[in-house]
Amino acid sequence: MEESVRPSSTVNGTPQHIDLQSIPLPPQRGAGDAAAVDTTSARPPYAAWESRYRAWVIGSDVFTAFVLIVMSAFLIDRSDPHDMHALGTAAAFLFGLSVCRAWSPRVLGEGAEEYRTLGRGLVATAVLVALGGLLFGALAVQPWVFIVVPMISVFMFLQRYALRQVLHRRRRLGECLLPVLAAGSPDTVADLIARTKADPHVGWRVEAVCTYSGAGAERGSGEVEGVPIVGKLDDLAGHVRRGGYRVVAVTADQHWNPKRLQRLAWDLEGTSAEMVVAPMLMEVAGPRLNVSGVLGMPLLRVTAPMFTGGRRLVKEALDRFGSALLLTLFSPLLLAIAVAIKLDDHGPVIYRQRRVGRDGHTFTMLKFRTMVTNADKLKQELQSDNEGAGPLFKMRKDPRVTRVGGLLRRYSLDELPQLLNVVSGRMSLVGPRPPLPEETAKYAPDARRRLLVKPGLTGLWQVSGRSDLSWAESIRLDLRYVEDWSLALDLVILWKTFRAVVQGRGAY
To answer: What topology does the record note for this protein and the membrane (predicted)?
Structure first.
């Protein structure tokens, strides 16, 4: 979800240019810059780029809704744009998005949460329009509920996406980042710093560190992964007030206990900083985590992962329908690929291989053949050149790959026959990578949790780097999917897969 600096969208033929490059932004400071840990003057609560980005979001949302509502009033009601339907829809739109916090600075640019709040706001808009029609006797609201509001939703999601690409691009250039003060043990802080550097689109930059252990904490000097240590954990609130940090990231350390964390939260009141505490269950997130009060104590509830139930039935139905639809749409392409493979070396078109599915049951996975016909026999001779992670066998320049096969692999077209596995119910559109039987024989107990769900045509491993990932990272991402699965996550992965395939990233 990245790229263009000048994205544009079109509403009924009217181009809307969105150019955040024209907005002047304050200079950004590097993590190692002395100015980044200046403790003499606090920064403003919100940087200029945050306010202007929010203004762009609100302005584009309102403009899109206004244009579509006005045009719909003329096309549907054959009247002026001031009729009751148009005014009611506009009021419902403003109220629904405001109440659902779709314009809150806390969610703008914040991963899937921004899209979830926007979706809730638009659903609330449709409900309000329908209820308003019943309440005021305007019964001809069906086109507004089932056509106008969904149309507004489509354009609004596209505009939010376009703005996010601009924001992500600027963040990769080191701009539009939130200053973070990390507090915890040197090891956990170092892990946090590494993650923020690897994923700059998240928008965090760790500019200073407070830690309880080490000589650097006593002197207020030293570094962790190139980020300066400014003091001890006991002095954290004072550094936040003087430095004007936007995020205080609390990582694991034996210093922390409930009383100290509560005191820190109190001390940060009235500052610009948001306190973020990393839980012990680092790979559990999203809908499985809920905070509730029991016996006067705040408790973090972790619900069990969903392997059955209504949502899984919905996923199953979407898998079957979606794969059948894709097979129909891609049928000319499938035929062309089959002919190209046959003409290339006159060998079989389909490659069949035993893979391990849900609960350890094996099935035959179908793919377009991309290697010579005796590829499995040649594999033993190439073991010394293996570049794959863990039990995987991979080579960037595998001599067994045919000419047509190289092109198919680059754009993952060889995976298309797996849609037949999805239609038959053996695989899912999204899930962990389907492993070989010899791979599962070497699985550690944690890796075997990948088999609790159906393997997928795509998954987190693919959209996060595909063949370039280490074995440990592949396992971590697959387990994260198993633990935190949701329909929204599936949709995000499918969209990112499309982008990764088009760009040919990480495939060989």
So the answer is: Multi-pass membrane protein
Token pair for 373: 């016909």
Render 466-502 in DSSP notation, one character per residue.
GGGS-HHHHHHHHHHHHHH--HHHHHHHHHHHHHHHH
61: in domain: yes
**pLDDT band at residue 3 under the 50/70/90 scheme:** very low
Q: Residue 319 above 90 pLDDT?
A: yes
Report if residue 21 sits inside a domain. Answer: no
Q: Give dist(CA 398, CA 507) in Å, integer.
A: 12
Cα–Cα distances in angstroms (integers) from residue 470 to residues 133, 258, 398, 466, in the given order: 56, 36, 19, 9
Q: Which residues pair with 9 in a beta bridge?
A: 16
pLDDT at 310 > cutoff 70 = yes
Q: Are 64 and 162 in contact (CB under 8 A)?
A: no
Domain ranges, residue 369: 310-503
Are residues 409 and 265 part of one domain? Answer: no
- Tens of pLDDT, residue by residue over 14-32, are 334 344 444 333 334 443 4
Question: Within a domain: residue 19?
Answer: no
The larger pLDDT score, comparing residue 135 to residue 279, is at 135
The answer to the question of residue 28 being in a domain is no
Q: With cut-offs at 50, 70 and 90, classify the pLDDT of residue 206.
A: very high
First-to-last CA distance in the chain?
A: 22
- Burial environment of residue 323 by CB neighbours within 10 A (0 to 12, 13 to 18, 19 or more): buried
Last residue of a domain, one of 248, 279, 302: 302
Q: How far apart are CA 268 and CA 240, in angstroms?
A: 8
* Residue 89 near residue 144 (C-beta atoms within 8 A): yes
* Buried-state track 178-212, b at ≥16 Cβ within 10 A, e below 16: bbbbbbbbbebbbbbbeebeeebbbbbbbbbbbbb
Beta bridge partners of 10: 15
Query: 330 with 454, same domain?
Result: yes
The angle formed by the CA atoms of residues 256, 260 and 261, to the nearest 5 degrees, is 80
Output b/e per residue, 29-52; b: 16+ Cβ within 10 A: bebeeeebbbbeeeeeeebebbee
Q: CA-to-CA distance for 282 and 264, rounded, in angstroms? A: 21
Q: Any idea what the Cα angle at residue 70 is, between residues 68 and 74, rounded to 5°?
A: 110
